[in-house]
Amino acid sequence: MSDNSGDVATQVANVFGGEQQLNTMNTDAKRMLADAQAGRWAVDEETGTHLRRAVSQMQARLGEVAPRIYILQQAPKFGNDDYAKRASAHFLQAMDSDDQSLVRVYQAARDMLETLRQAIDIAVSKYDRSDDAAVQALQKFRDQESG
Q: pTM of whole model > 0.70?
């Protein structure tokens, strides 16, 4: 059996522009979430809808792979002898041992998209609140002019 888990992990990471790009995107998503929470980033509902749709599409594509990832997290049933047990353990380690292994790349991509979705939701709510505050402030000026 050939172990091409590195190739598959690379392919998954390449969907996002490579492993380094995926790491950068993960960091950026966390920063966007922090900025949205702090009120430094806001988007209108229409833009938020487009961004949510793109994130949802990527989440759906990753969701299609989820059952296969689950299988890769299980020890393969090679047999009960010592060699089969070592081979099984090696397989599991190859799938989920470091940031370049398939399971970790998949989880990083999934986590990044969820963080980005949260950031968008918060950014839209912040925009809505700031828009409401602006409308209320303008209403006060209108009330003063008419009074």
A: yes
- Measured CA to CA, the distance from residue 25 to residue 108 in angstroms comes to 10
Nearest residue to 51 (alpha-carbon basis) of 41, 38, 66:
41
Upper half-sphere CA count for residue 35 (Cβ side, 13 Å): 15
Residue of 85, 142, 102, 99 whose CA lies nearest to 12: 102
For residues 119 and 29, is the Cβ–Cβ distance under 8 A? yes
Give pLDDT, residue 76: 87
Would you give the DSSP letter of residue 77?
-
If one counts every other C-beta atom within 10 angstroms of the C-beta of residue 94, the result is 18
Taking alpha carbons only, the member of 107, 108, 101, 110 closest to residue 7 is: 101
